[in-house]
Amino acid sequence: MKRNWIRLKNALRHSPKYLCLGAASVMMLFPFFWMLMTAMKTRQELSQYPPSMFPQSLNLSNFATVLKHSSLSVYFVNSTVVAVVQTILLVIITTLAAYGFYRYRFFGKKALFCTFMLLNALPFEVVMLFNYKMMIQMGLNNTLTALIIPFCFKFFYVYILYNAFCAIPKSLYIAACVDRASDLKFLFRIALPIVRPNIIYISIMSMVSSWNSFIWPLLITNSVETRTLPFGIYTYMSETGSDQSLVMAFSVLSQLPLVLILIVMRKYFVNGYKSYYSAQT
After folding, report:
1. How far is 102 from 165, CA to CA, in rounded Å?
2. Residue 80, Cβ density class (10 Å: 0-12 exposed, 13-18 middle, ≥19 buried)
3. Cα-atom radius of gyration of the chain, to the nearest Å?
4. Of 67, 200, 236, 255, which has the most beta carbons under 10 Å away?
5. What is the DSSP string of 141-152?
6. What is the pLDDT of residues 39-80, one digit of tens each?
7. pLDDT digits (tens, 9 = 90+) for 211-251
8. Which residue in 209, 205, 189, 207 sits closest to 197, CA to CA?
9. N- to C-terminal Cα separation, the chain
10. DSSP letter, residue 189
11. Nearest Cα to 215, choosing from 81, 146, 125?
């Protein structure tokens, strides 16, 4: 009886927090729910006023129509290639940079670190102009390479991994040195397995950012062969006119890979998120 009373007391004490989290979850998930419901509606249902929450029947014809779109496979392949290659390069470069700041001492280390942090605060629109000029001078405009190179390094992710490396006990490094392990061997054998949740966290964040990028591909590419899914949705909107159900079906299909990745990797994503903020305290 006493144990049940303690459980009830704890539940009541935490109930305001759970109510706030539940309300925030509903607010974040409702747009996706509305998108899915709209994708299964007909034109007649879309013209109803007031609009209905649920479709009258389970209508999957809109998805079939979108799948028949000639350029969908091109957009999907381009988005996949750009997201995967960019994420792999970003993880490699970010890991080595963070480990360099963590392990080595050199002149101007703190000044360089602070400079990168200040540059990281610049808005994307400012950096985008320099990236565009650089891609034009290199002759990489209208290529998938131009979609990948400018985003292979983000210092915010270096900062996350740097804090994760700093949380590793120094006794592990001393023990590795006693066993005559090199710095690279310590990195790959000991450090990387410890910071794996953080690496998975930045990998997911990078992939989501790359997959949903719209402004940069619109600026640097000018053909269907090099454009990605967000621009495909924009193009499909102009083709279908006022048929929002088809546009929503296209949007659902474009976001489905990200949803599956987040579902499969949610444990690592949460662990990486928690370890990052625990390192700040």
Report:
1. 7
2. middle
3. 24
4. 236
5. TTSHHHHHGGGS
6. 888 777 777 777 777 777 777 877 888 887 767 888 889 999
7. 988 888 888 888 888 888 888 888 877 776 667 788 888 88
8. 205
9. 38
10. I
11. 125
